[in-house]
Design a protein that fits this description.
Blueprint: H1 2-25, H2 30-33, H3 48-56, H4 59-90, H5 96-105, H6 111-125, H7 131-135, H8 142-152, H9 157-165, H10 170-181, H11 183-199, H12 202-207, H13 216-226, H14 231-241, H15 243-265
């Protein structure tokens, strides 16, 4: 047991250390970051790096763009996954098996293969260089449908049939019975979807041309190229970008753990 704890502690330190160094470096002057040997804790902590980033770059605009895209994609994808997963788990209809297999097959297609088709569709819809171009491809998640279907399959049919006998509509059953039972899985899916959308770089690089419509990963690339030698400013900008990710994880960590435990029991 102690050996496992030690191994997990070492692995945790390896994964967390880059984040800790980045955040601590954001509070250091440039001279201290470049000092050899390097220091871990800032000797003279300063907020000047954050103030300069916010004053010299449209950081709040990039932040807003990322939040709009990530929240919209997460909300829509969680809803469509909940509906799709519940339908595949509890309803019978023609070609149910082949359709579900087709959805699973899309998980094996690398996203770069879909870049050109997505670009053509976005161009014909007239949403290129617009935040809608970043939202539309993520509205339906094959992984989300699969995940929710696995959890929804464990909901007792007797519970649903009893609600139908009581006169409840299908939407009432879905909203009052199914969704509360799927809450851990939906929370985990929401966190995964938010993180994927927040960190997405390749598709925004293709679909967005204007800097004022960029999301943070794309904008930070531009910012780091302009401030290529100002490691203090780059660390400050990157540190502010991870704040929403940490907040979302801290809020939903219990639901994520619960979902993983239930998945393991299944």
């Amino acid at each position: 047991e102690y050996v496992l704890i030690a191994i997990f502690a070492v692995i945790t330190i390896i994964f967390v250390m880059p984040l800790v160094v980045m955040v601590l470096s954001a509070f250091k002057p440039l001279a201290e970051i470049q000092r050899m040997p390097p220091t871990l804790l800032p000797e003279a902590p300063t907020l000047a790096n954050f103030q300069r980033v916010l004053s010299e770059a449209p950081y709040f605009l990039w932040y807003r763009n990322s939040l709009v895209v990530a929240i919209a994609v997460t909300a829509i994808a969680v809803f469509t996954s909940a509906v799709g997963g519940y339908i595949f788990a509890k309803f019978e209809f023609p070609l149910k098996g082949p359709l579900f297999a087709l959805i699973l097959a899309t998980l094996m297609i690398p996203f770069p293969v879909l870049l050109i088709p997505n670009y053509i569709i976005a161009n014909r819809l007239g949403v290129l260089n617009n935040l809608l171009a970043l939202i539309l491809p993520g509205m339906v998640s094959a992984f989300g449908i699969f995940l929710i279907r696995q959890f929804a399959a464990g909901i007792p049919r007797d519970l649903i049939e009893a609600a139908r006998l009581d006169g409840a509509s299908e939407w009432a059953i879905f909203g009052r019975i199914v969704l509360p039972l799927l809450r851990p899985a939906l929370a985990a899916l929401g966190v995964f979807t938010f993180l994927a959308s927040w960190n997405d770089y390749l598709w925004p690089l293709v679909a967005i041309n204007d800097l004022d419509k960029s999301t943070l990963p794309l904008a930070l690339t531009f910012f780091s190229s302009v401030q290529s030698t100002r490691y203090d400013l780059i660390m400050a900008a990157a540190s502010m970008a991870v704040v929403p990710v940490l907040i979302v994880f801290l809020i939903f960590q219990r639901q994520i753990v619960k979902a993983l435990v239930l998945a393991g029991m299944r």
